[in-house]
């Protein structure tokens, strides 16, 4: 990644080198695998906040105070350039400000993630997609799939930080079907970078205990309780990732947990043609 711009409250991560090789979406960049930090400290460094209910449904009075506390705490940490663990409609994720280059570097480093692997962008409303992407599909299609367990890949706009996935002109957009995440994105007021809460190559997380080794590197963990059925392998597949960057066509980049419903909407309702084998 290019040298990080300073972000209040977070020490800038060491800038990564740039090479030349084929990366995602036919890009030209060689991704350096950033090693995660050493063994976790004995005491977690993250503050843990438990959401009222499960977080997927907005809390009502008298539990609203706990909901608001968690929102304000998360927004404060994100605006300071920190990395926060959050529940979504599919998996637990790591979120940071997509506009903070140092925070983006920190996410790659703590996960030990290759820099050639893109981060998704989490937004709070469908209307926000038009600010950060060049949309060439009907608005109804967006409303049919979002919010939901999908990531829609489109051409990015100049509104996004150039240090976010600099190796590709595309960006994956997420609006989780999860009340807390929608409230968080709207209260934050800008794009959030989002990825799964686990070390790279390790299983994804359906509860906060499963990524406890990462807590020392996080500022805040929002506990929304267990997500889905932990005994079902399908629950750990994450969102279905769909390439919508080619007009009139779609490509399945990752099958994910909502493949059947997503392809049904794209093909039957909107007549889009597949341009990539789902098995790829």
Automatic annotation (TrEMBL):
One of its GO terms (cellular component) is mitochondrion. Keywords: Cell membrane, Cytoplasm, Membrane, Mitochondrion, Transferase, Transit peptide. It comes from the Eukaryota. GO terms for molecular function: double-stranded RNA binding; L-threonylcarbamoyladenylate synthase; tRNA binding. Residues 21-45 are annotated as: Disordered. The keyword Transit peptide applies. It is found in: Cell membrane; Cytoplasm; Mitochondrion. Its EC number is 2.7.7.87. It is a peripheral membrane protein. Residues 68-258 form the YrdC-like domain. Pfam families: Sua5_yciO_yrdC. GO terms for biological process: regulation of translational fidelity. It catalyses: L-threonine + hydrogencarbonate + ATP = L-threonylcarbamoyladenylate + diphosphate + H2O. PROSITE patterns: YRDC (PS51163). PANTHER family: SUA5 (PTHR17490), THREONYLCARBAMOYL-AMP SYNTHASE (PTHR17490:SF10). Interacts with RSC1A1. Cytoplasmic and mitochondrial threonylcarbamoyl-AMP synthase required for the formation of a threonylcarbamoyl group on adenosine at position 37 (t(6)A37) in tRNAs that read codons beginning with adenine. Catalyzes the conversion of L-threonine, HCO(3)(-)/CO(2) and ATP to give threonylcarbamoyl-AMP (TC-AMP) as the acyladenylate intermediate, with the release of diphosphate. Participates in t(6)A37 formation in cytoplasmic and mitochondrial tRNAs. May regulate the activity of some transporters. Belongs to the SUA5 family. NCBIfam families: L-threonylcarbamoyladenylate synthase. This is Threonylcarbamoyl-AMP synthase. It comes from Myotis lucifugus.
